[in-house]
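Quick check before the chapter quiz. The format below is the same one you will see on the exam, so make sure you can read both the input and the output lines.
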Amino acid sequence: MRLDSRDIAILRVLSAEGRITKAELAARVGLSASPCWERLKRLEQAGLIEGYHARINLRKLGPHVTVFVAAELADHTPASFHGFEDTVQHYEEITACWALGGGFDYLLQIVTTDIDAYQRLIDHLLESRIGLARYFTYIVTKRVKGPVAPPLALLTDTAD
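Here is the expected output.
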């Protein structure tokens, strides 16, 4: 799908302010409401907009710890990768998981109430025999940046 500067503008605004009204969105991107609405529907139908989400301030919610885990599997077979990926889907505490190229196989983002809860999760993953050979734990001490909108204009080949 080829995007123009107005499509990029719509995506940029929505990635920062998902609850903006359609009228305000149209005004911000320099379109009248109807053409803006048509573009928005087209972007949704094309799968460029996967959903609208609230960004929760976990510090206001209560005590928690965010942990990144670099994981390496024992076997590098398609079945091992599929088994690991299927398993992590079932853990609410695993809030994100990325497959990596290079030294480690996966990077997991985990949010739990405390380090003890994190360790119980890791113990459970190890006991479940999903092929986890090694893992390295990185505890987040503070968020410096993010989440932010991706650099949309740099990532697209715009028509204008």
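If your answer matched, good. The helical segments are 5-16, 22-29, 33-45, 58-61, 78-88, 115-127, 152-155.
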